Amino acid sequence: MAYCCISSLMQTLKQLLQAKSPLICESFIQQHVESSYQSLCTLQVFLEDTTNEANDIENLKILENKIKDVVYKAEDRVDSCLTNIILAQNEDDREKACKFFNEELQQIWLLFFSNMAHNEKTEHQFGSYIFKIKTQNRSNGETMYGIH
Q1: Cα dihedral 138/112/51/68 (nearest 10)
Q2: SS3 of 71, please?
Q3: Cβ neighbours of residue 59 closer than 8 Å, sequence gap 6 or more
Q4: So what's the pLDDT on residue 17?
Q5: Residue 146 maps to a domain
Q6: Which one-letter DSSP state was computed for residue 144?
Q7: What is the DSSP letter of 99?
Q8: Per-residue pLDDT tens for 62-97?
Q9: What residue stretches are annotated with the Disease resistance N-terminal domain (predicted)?
Q10: What is the CATH number for 89?
Q11: From CA 42, how far away is CA 59, in angstroms rounded?
């Protein structure tokens, strides 16, 4: 179920990126949308790998529920921000809505990681997984999120 929630939010972000959407007001917002999309891709792969290697089914269920809850909240916040941008009456309101959207994208990831941190085991699993991916990418000469 968490996988489906992630896919849904990824689809929303992908549509924003593909259409060169006027809803993305500034290039820095596009960067945050791209970064959020990449983070969701990584989270989705992590969830797949964790599900395939799960020894502790109970902990996996807890992890999936946490991810699902946070992603639902994130999608609600993104949808709300996009609605505010669409309904803006003038350029000033639109600019404010765009800035708020940018702030929300940043807050979404703070929310996610703070929720993951409430469970030491999942925090360690996810942290180790991200470190492993970054290490693999660096050894291949690739970059991830602009980090070499």
Answers
A1: -150
A2: helix
A3: 119, 121, 122
A4: 83
A5: no
A6: B
A7: H
A8: 888 888 888 898 899 999 999 998 899 998 998 899
A9: 6-95
A10: 1.20.5.4130
A11: 20
pLDDT (0 to 100) of residue 79: 93
16 located within any domain: no
126 and 46 Cβ atoms separated by less than 8 Å: yes
Q: What is the CA radius of gyration of the chain?
A: 17
Q: Helical H runs in the chain?
A: 2-18, 27-52, 57-87, 91-116, 120-139
Query: How many whole angstroms separate alpha carbon 73 and alpha carbon 54?
Result: 26
Residue 29, in any domain of the structure: no
Structural domain including 51 reads 1-8+40-123
Q: Are 41 and 64 in contact (CB under 8 A)?
A: no
Domain assignment of residue 102, yes or no: yes
**Burial bucket for residue 99 (CB in 10 Å: 0-12, 13-18, 19+):** middle
3-class secondary structure, 25: coil
**Count of domains in the chain?**
1
133: Cα within 13 Å, side-chain hemisphere: 17
Which residues in the chain land under pLDDT 50?
133-134, 137-138, 142-148
